[in-house]
Each structure stands twice: as C-alpha cells, then as structure tokens.
Amino acid sequence: MIYLDSHSATRPCQAALERMGPYQQEHWGAGFAPHRMGQELIAALDARYRMLYDLIGAQEECDRFVFTSSGAEAINQVFWSVFLHKARTEGKCHFIISQIEDAPTMQCAKRLEDLGCIVKIAPVDAQGRIDVQKLAELINPRTALISITMAHGLTGVIQPYEEIADLAQKRGVLLHLEATYAIGKLPFDGWLGDYLTFSGDRMHSVKGSGALFAKEKSPLTALIVGGNEQNGLRGGQFDIPSFMALSAAAQQLLLYLDVMNLEVARLRDLLESRVQGTPLYQDVLRLPNTACISFAKVHQEALLYVLNRKGVLATIGGGYCGHLGRVTGDECTVSFSLSRMTTEEEVLRAASLINEAVEMLRRVSEGM
C-alpha cells in the first residue's frame, strides 16, 4: 500500500519504539513510588522533558507542560480550565472557534454551550484561511478564549495565527493554538498564545500520547483527578513508555525539519505535477507535505473507493477531521498528506494509479 494519509495517523518511528521498549519490559515501575524502582525513573523523565520543550522553543522556567493520552485530551483540558476559571468565576462565558476545527474542538464547544456558554464560529475565506477581520468582530468584553488550528489538516493551509495571537493579546483574550498538523513542519522559535496542544500519533509517536503547553499565568486545571496528579495538572497513572516515545519522536522531528521542508515538499510538488487534477491552495502558505487536489467530474467518495482498491490511501476527512467538502465547497477534492517516510518511487506509482482511477471514473460518468 502507498500511504498518503499522514494527517490521520503516522507510522511510529523506530526511535520512538526503541525508546519506549525498556520502559515496558524492564523499567515498568511507578514514578511516584518511594522505592528505588520508582525513583530511578525520575531522572530519566527529567532528561526527556527537555526534548519536548526544545520542539516548540518553550522555556522550562515559565512554560508548563502536561503529558496527555491524546491531542483530544489536551484540547479538553484547555477548554475545561478556561471554563472553570473564566466562565464560572468571572462571567466570561463567550468562546470563539473557527469553522475548520477538528472534532475535539467542535465537541468541546458544544459541551460548553450545554453548560450555558456562548460559542461563535469564525469563517474562512476563499483561500481556506480564517478571516481575521470577521474573527475580530466576534470578540466582546465577555470573550474568554479563542481556539484555532495553526494549519488545516486536509487543505494544508497555514492559518494567520500570528495575526490572531497579536489580536488576542491586544484585546486581553486567551488564545489556544492547536498544533497537531504544524508540529514538525513549521519552525518554532518560541510559541505564541496561552495554550498549545498536539497529538503524538500525527508526529511519528505512538497512539496514546499527546501534549499540552500553557504559559505560566494561564489558568490550568487537572482534567483527570486520580490521586496521582502530574505537577498537580493530570491525575491517574503516568504512562511512562508512551511519554518516552513522544520525546523520541520530538527529537526526530527537529532532526528532520529540513527534510520535511525541502525533500517532502519536492515530493508533494511532484505528485501535484503528475496527476490529472487541479491542485488547490498553491497561492497561499501551506504545509510542505499536503496536496489538496480537485478532480473535475469525479466524485471524491468514488475516487477514494477506487484508490483504496488500488492500494493508494488518501482522505476526504470525516471522523476526527471535518469533511473536506465543507472547506472547498465541492465534492471532487481529495487530500493527500505525505510523511518523511514517503519515497519518490511511491509518489510516482501513486500518481500513475490516481490517473488510472480518474480516467476510469470519468469514462463511467460520461456513459451515464
């Protein structure tokens, strides 16, 4: 199979699997235990935290880190924290998200509405970018949080998060950046906003890993309470093997950042040049690994079905991600996302198979 759906999940890298192995087989103790088997884990954990701070340019002195079981858990903790500290105590019950957010953010927003909060949705423009001016018009004195994705997983369009961060700061509103699709693709020299979250299984770590960063003065409350809170911010047993995998994956992302932005971008462009379709969003800043391509007179679901039979795995969203048609406005578009493990041979073979599928479906369509 040729896997071109790296924004749904990525293959765990060898470094992540190797680093987590000893903590499943040998060092399997509990880090909170007072005996040697528990305490020996503390030094190992401290050394690995630094890799995650380095990944986004965070500062250990003022930025707080919480290891989570997923990106979805991290997002939930952000919304819950802001709800408890702002909506319940200060009456700031107004939240803003964008129309292109993934399911966890949308579902958190719906839960807040059920709890009596008001949620407004900022639209995107014709280029798939959040409309900053219209977002600004939604802010009012009771706005507690703006939550946006840094880059869209299906279109690859990089959002104007720097402008939105500047806007949020000037208006005194907390900002949450969801960085799952941006991590390892955009350079981070420090991070903007008050909260940043990402999922490990989209960055070549294992499933069951994610992260939340919060600025020192940003409200943060434990989402899970289990008598063993991690820095007072997450309860339950700390999953050391998964954390080790996440730290190794973070280290690899930094090492391969140039590969992603040069070689993977070249392969993305090669795919776009070889297929019989119209690449979208080429005139805006976008992720180096994502191609969003429209195939005239071919329905996206039919194309996905045929490609799946041919061994080319792509996506139109749904499930965790929103549906691609909601952003592009048509039903002829398919999203392809490469990884640093994608080869040129795979891209050329995929382009050939995509063209075969498109030609076959167009012939069928013309005959109906």
Strand order of the largest sheet: 2-8-7-6-5-3-4
Q: What is the number of helical segments per DSSP (H or I, 4+ residues)?
A: 12
> Main beta sheet: strand number and arrangement?
7 strands, mixed
> Regarding quaternary structure, how should these chains be classified?
single chain
Within the CATH hierarchy, at the fold level, what is the topology of the largest domain? Aspartate Aminotransferase, domain 2
**Low-confidence regions:** none
What is the gyration radius calculated from CA atoms?
A: 21 Å
CATH architecture of the largest domain: 3-Layer(aba) Sandwich
Mean pLDDT: 91
DSSP, total strands: 14
Characterise the protein shown here.
- By secondary structure, this protein is α/β, with parallel strands linked by helices.
- The protein has two domains: 2-9 and 257-361, Alpha-Beta Complex (Aspartate Aminotransferase, domain 1); 14-254, Aspartate Aminotransferase, domain 2.
- Helices cover 42% and strands 16% of the residues.
- It is built from twelve helices and 14 strands.
- The chain has helices at residues 14-20, 22-25, 36-56, 71-90, 103-114, 132-138, 161-171, 240-255, 257-274, 300-310, 324-328, 344-366, and strands at 2-3, 63-68, 94-98, 118-122, 143-149, 174-178, 195-199, 210-215, 278-279, 290-294, 312-313, 317-318, 321-323, 333-337.
- The strands form four sheets. It has a seven-stranded mixed sheet with strand order 2-8-7-6-5-3-4, with helices on both faces.
- α7 (161-171) links the parallel β5 and β6 (174-178).
- The longest helix is centred in the C-terminal third of the chain and has 23 residues, at 344-366.
- It is globular and about 70 Å long.
- The protein starts with a strand and ends with a helix.
- The mean pLDDT is 91.
